[in-house]
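User: For a teaching handout, I'd like to show students what a predicted protein-ligand complex looks like in token form. I'll give you the sequence and the SMILES for coenzyme A. Please answer with just the structure.
Assistant: Understood, here is the input followed by the structure.
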Amino acid sequence: MNIRKATMEDEKAIATVHVESWKTTYQGIVPAEYLAQLSVSEKEQLWQRGLNQPKHSIFVVEEDGKVCGFISGGKNRATHGKEAKYEGEIYAIYLLKEAQGKGYGTKLVKALVDDFQRDGIRSMVVWVLADNPSRLFYERLGGEKIAEGIIDIGGKKLTEWCYGFQLCIDEI
Ligand SMILES: CC(C)(COP(=O)(O)OP(=O)(O)OC[C@H]1O[C@@H](n2cnc3c(N)ncnc32)[C@H](O)[C@@H]1OP(=O)(O)O)[C@@H](O)C(=O)NCCC(=O)NCCS
């Protein structure tokens, strides 16, 4: 297992993990038609933009030289509400199903938090669907639920929760 900063060459691998992990994670939560139409090439364009953003921190985790997960984060996008008081945000964290439960997620968060601390970011948020059992991962890392919202995905209204963290590197 190896964690490193993502490069422009990782665009396709990240897009592939993104689509695969969405399909396994959100089956039964997000409408099946929406999941079926997810395309790696569309996500590639999204990640090309992300990887070109100097203020974006993106890390990948590899197993046997193959990317099996990633995390992306940066400045908090919230403009109002309690969540806007936090400085940073995890935009996305996804591992392939077979790479989950091995501690990689915790290590990816730590890599991002190291970057945040170097940039003087001392708090962060993450949004997660209330129906996603992975939200317990954020609770395990010490996140506190600070807000709730509604998001429309593929025509279905879903509740999402926002977790807030005060960053103390030793605690992660
Ligand atoms: C969420 C995710 C990034 C966590 O990474 P991971 O490598 O699987 O988690 P770790 O092995 O580092 O687990 C850390 C702790 O969180 C707990 N945890 C992780 N996922 C959990 C889950 N789904 N349910 C309950 N607890 C969970 C682990 O049990 C572990 O607790 P412990 O320290 O007491 O053993 C990963 O499982 C994943 O990609 N899930 C699918 C995609 C997803 O939901 N992404 C988040 C979208 S907002």
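For the handout, you might add this sentence: Helices lie at 11-25, 32-36, 40-51, 104-118, 135-140.
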